[in-house]
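## Example pair
The file below holds two records. Each record gives the amino-acid sequence first, followed by its structure token line.
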Amino acid sequence: MKNLLLRGLTGVLYVILITGSILLNRYTFAGLFSILLFFCLREFYGLLNTHKKVHISTVYNSAGGVLLFVSAGLYASGAFPSAVFAVYLLYLVGLWVSGLYTKPSDPLVHTAYVLLGQCYIALPFALLNFLVFPDCLSSGTYYPLFLLSLFVFIWLSDTGAFVVGMLWGKHRLFPRISPKKSWEGFFGGLFFTVASSFIFAYYEPVIPYHHWIGIAVWVVIFGTWGDLVESLIKRTLGIKDSGSALPGHGGFLDRIDSLLLAVYAAVIYVQVIIQN
């Protein structure tokens, strides 16, 4: 019971912080998500250091990922031209050159693992900026609803899948990677997520309801893949949770695993389908 209460309290606090930072303004969004990204990358690189016996600088390379996120925000908001990414490109150059001086035992593996963290975690976070500054509305205007819907859809999909799967789940979705997930749970999560999309359509009629449904469906599919990909990574590393920073929930990556692929679906839908 104590663990359940602790898990519930942590979950509520997480939802409040994420929702509040998104809705308040662009600065609270940028601040909280920069911090979240830093700790996600630090956690990921720490896992690789422990289980793959490499020596990645967790602080330096986590800060590099934050640099990509901030650069993308400045570009997406129209505050700076594409030249703002030059600093991040210098970080990437430094990553390759550093192998000449630090002399890691296997420089290719070391560099590959660092780039894996940048692609797997930092790039999806950077793309979040193109949801809060969507060109399909007005360039440079902070618009939190797409990003908020992304998180709400993920949360409802996870919750619906858990409840429906626990009650009626019989057919395994992907037993090799996650034996507890079921097709019944997947469609249960999809139902609750699509139902919630009508609420967003009601409060934002400028975006037609069928687009909100489209985003919801894409987020559920890609979010499920994101969850499974993180499960694959944890199985490869031989661990149950990515960390213990969040009581009752595991690590930071355990909380944002679905987001890391779902953001691609949301950005593609908003920037390509809705905008055109």
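Second record, same layout:
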Amino acid sequence: MSGIYLHIPFCKQACHYCDFHFSTSMNKKDALVLALAKEIALRKKEFANEVVETIYFGGGTPSVLTLEEINFLIQQVYQNFTVAANPEITLEANPDDLSESYLLALSKSAVNRLSIGVQSFFEADLKLMNRAHNSEQAIKCLEIARGYFDNISIDLIYGIPGMTHERWKQNVQKALDFGVSHISSYALTVEPKTALNTLIKTGKIAPPDDEVAQEQFVILVETLEANGFIHYELSNFGKEHCFSRNNSAYWLGKKYLGIGPSAHSYDGVSRSWNVSNNSIYIKKIQENQLPNESEILSITDRYNEYIMTGLRTIWGVSLQRIADDFGSNYRDYLYQQMQPFLIGGLLVVEDEVLRPTKKGKFLTDGIASDLFYLNLNS
């Protein structure tokens, strides 16, 4: 099974922390939607032998699309690919776009899962991040959405400067009160070329505190697990049978096709990525050219990716798979590198599967980098 990701590179305004590819000008939206449809057709041979299990509208802000545009793009996927009988079709959406009329129309489309970018239910946090919506819209959209959709995920951000533990607990509890089946939650990260980075450097905003973020991560994990959520990936929590099939496919190394500017694709052997420029993307697609670059992944690249993705999930890193897929030298190297983390109580081996402990979960990405194999020429 495989997935198709469609990148919608438009936003009403720029969040201070975001470094994804997007434009706040909607001038090229019509042309870009047509280009997305054409790229789908141009790349149908790449998935000729695949069954598409998930379709994911990401961005940017996909909810700036009209229902006609969403339906048109879904129709293009069905016309060019073999789609599973009951695919997961997700639309990322911002609260300010989710009026009752929009949600009603959306519920009658093929979209069956919403991922709503709430980030926080508190006005101070939303203003600091320069979100397009306010706290009232965040609450109202969820009150309406749960009447039309059973499968709703919301995004929350922790480690925001000025956010107390009490306010974070209230954020998590508000999410639980809405009865959502999935929560994705991330620490506020300061990326180099963002407004947040500039505001911190100029002293207008305090930098995030890593210790506070770690404490809020622990609060998040303990609260959600106590309420029946499974912590199936470092940043993702779902009720039983409600894991994101799209997200899970990434972590399990399944193939996916990325459509749109800046979108990435993976076929199990190579990775490709489209140009991060709307005008160039549209022009190249109109000329029947794919505006992308690609690389063949070495065995070391694939080993390192498996370490990174495996440690982030409940499925862990299979030591047997390391030996079978990558060879004894990689297995021996991993055994050597993981010893300090086993002794330090950050990793544990159970049934020949390597996983982070509760203590090690927040540090997963750093631990993974210490397990990477960097010295092979293959």
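Notes on the second record: The chain is about 40% helix and 20% strand. The radius of gyration is 21 Å.
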